[in-house]
């Protein structure tokens, strides 16, 4: 499915603003993105498996709370860099 | 004690300036008279430390994160022209319940012993000690510290505003297995065996009134330095004063008592002369009432000793005479290897200052930079 990539991570995607990824959950999508773009995952998910404090994920414009949230191939997922201060 | 400057003393100097909004390199000519500021590196990234590898002067490591993205380490093999990110940055072990510690940022980088090429150590916030043996590509935690059942006896949780820090990761030049570390809310610790076992080294250190000095968690060293020419001599700038320790002794002596009373002996950095074990420099800050942590009276000055702390001399020629409320963080003051020694500091309001005569006179080398976290002197590779 299509995943919108925030500008802070474009250095990993070679400048691409969107990427195709597969998975049944948000966590699996991020794992697939990390496979495609090594290093991507750890920048947004910490070593305990939680989203970093200033990263959000939306599915079809709804922010989801859990990385275990289920996604479908037709969904549009966005990784969002949010409110990290000045 | 080596009497002559090292070969690095003949090189031009590059100051590796780490800031809250990126890194910069300020390069001198060979005479250290003119300085040129680089374009920003990692603009917008929080860079806590940029350090040269003395075993291969072309190699630099940088500790980075951003406001959104987690911590990582970058490595350059061409003195900052190109960078490659660590494949496995420092990270704590995953806890079974997912509630384990998380590295917020890599705070301190230390090149390994000359006998161990490729080895670096890193200190993190919250307190963690990490090691790489491949030049910074993959990092592993030292489980004998990070996962020790005594971790909570050694490391307090509340300290510095942006997180408790492991800093001053120090490798004895005589023995790669002999380590010292400093920790905000944790004090000084020593390991004789490469980090397998640890003992506290806080005897003689004062603590804030009302705390029990026998509790390791109330100790707050700001910067520890081991003298390269006399590794049995340690100096420390602590939250509660300036200290010296001559090993094998284990009791710190508060040499800051000899500072002028109106200045006091509070500060963050501690900088040593590369060859004279009796000479070091500090940058005092105001530790009165609410602890402004700025230059006392708005009159910045470096203070230096040449008798191991018995007497101190104010060194402020060329620095602003008034209305300058500078703060210099623990990694933001350093010395080069030249003779006479060059001294440098960076202030949180973005100015970099230098002295090419061991502090007798100062000049501004760069200004208008972001909040400066660290300044390290590097020898420009030939």
How would you describe what is shown here?
The complex is a heterodimer of chains A (86) and B (382). Chain A has 86 residues and is an alpha+beta fold. Helix content of chain A is 19%, strand content 23%. Chain A is globular, with a radius of gyration of 12 Å. Chain A starts with a strand and ends in a 5-residue tail after the last strand. The model of chain A has no long low-confidence stretch (mean pLDDT 95). In chain B, a hairpin with a 6-residue loop joins β16 and β17 (233-238). The longest helix of chain B has 4 residues, at 143-146. In chain B, the strands form 7 sheets. In chain B, strands 3-2-1-27 form a 4-stranded antiparallel sheet, with no helix packed on it. In chain B, strands 4-5-6-7 form a 4-stranded antiparallel sheet, with no helix packed on it. Helices cover 2% and strands 36% of the residues of chain B. Chain B is built from 2 helices and 27 strands. Chain B has 382 residues and is mainly beta. The radius of gyration of chain B is 19 Å and the shape is globular. Chain B has a single domain (7-379), classed as Methylamine Dehydrogenase, Chain H (7 Propeller), CATH 2.130.10. Chain B has helices at residues 143-146, 151-154; strands at residues 13-19, 22-28, 35-37, 46-52, 60-65, 72-76, 84-85, 105-111, 120-125, 128-132, 140-141, 166-172, 175-183, 187-191, 199-200, 221-226, 233-238, 241-246, 267-272, 280-284, 302-305, 313-315, 333-335, 343-346, 352-355, 363-366, 372-379.
